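Recap from last week: sequence in, structure out.
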Amino acid sequence: MDNKAVILGSNYYIGLSAIRCLGAHGIHTVAVDYSAENTYGAKSKYCSERAIAPHYSEETEEFIQFLKNYARSQAVPPVLIPCHDSYVEVMDQYLDELKEYYLIPQMEQGLYTKLMNKDTLHQLATEMGVAVPETVRVGEDNFMEKIETNIKYPCIVKPVDSPSFVATFRKKIFKVYNQKELEEALEKAKNANLEVFVQRIIPGFDDHMYTFDAYLNQDSKVTHWTTCQKYRQYPINFGASVYTVQKYVPELYEIGATFLEKLQYKGFAEIEFKKDAETGQFYLIEINVRITNFNSMLQKLGLNFPYITYQELTGSAVEPKAIAEDRNLAFWYGYEDLLAIKDYKRTKQLSLRKVIVSLFKPKAYAIWSAQDPKPAFSFVKMLISKLFKKVHHS
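Predicted structure tokens:
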């Protein structure tokens, strides 16, 4: 295992889980960040090395040069693992340069971006006969009329480029209840120079969100996969997973594997679906082309996706595996789940009894690990520090 694993982003628990997944197998892990502040993932005992790089978006050319220089100084090419969408965007932009120095599963420049971009993803899914929520694009003929008749209120204003939208507004979408709110949301997006479209809300509570998590080898064949059901997310209704359970849904394999294999995709991907509460149909919502939020649960299930990626790229592919049964294992990000529960209760979407019952499942935690407690202590320290600053400034 001479090849190092270079992990982009350790100030969030996705990076932490990638470090643990690889470090536990004795792989030399390198946590790369633009700052040492709040990088609790790098506090893991499985982190072998830390490196501070130029900022990926503010100093992009310097960041890419930093990565190339680092790889040049190694005896063998490192494996590159991005743990945030913004890193994937930059990586994809410079993929042809980076793949000369790093082992990266996806060799086709632009495919990551096509799948992250909601507009091109929508087009690809439609071409391949995969259901996507009804959409109206800004500037279409009879725009408001189409909203009234085809989409109906409430509806969502969704960004074409999610990372930029989240960075600007600290939320994934705008939910609007009437024409006035729609016009205000479109104005906000326009002022921020962000492209958006309007989409129908698929009926169903947050537990109607499902995922297909898979690894495709260098022949673009699905070798490892499972399906999951979200229970709660934060922000509620349109946020990231905070409580998710592995749930075997064979129909999602049929849709997801066919779609990704046709695209000639390689590496890990997670397709998010929503099941229509009225019709039972699954709609493709988005695709994550980097390690996912509940990676710690997938590892516990025996699907260690960072390790599967590393092993294939370094010439020792892991035996294929599918979780084709219900294991009843849950992923839990306790801190944000508590915030979510508060909002679900406030909006009368969830009863306390239902929440309590769900918490009795065996769990994989986002941050806490008895074998590797330092990141959790660092995370708590960071929260206390933020709270202190908030109180001090108010």
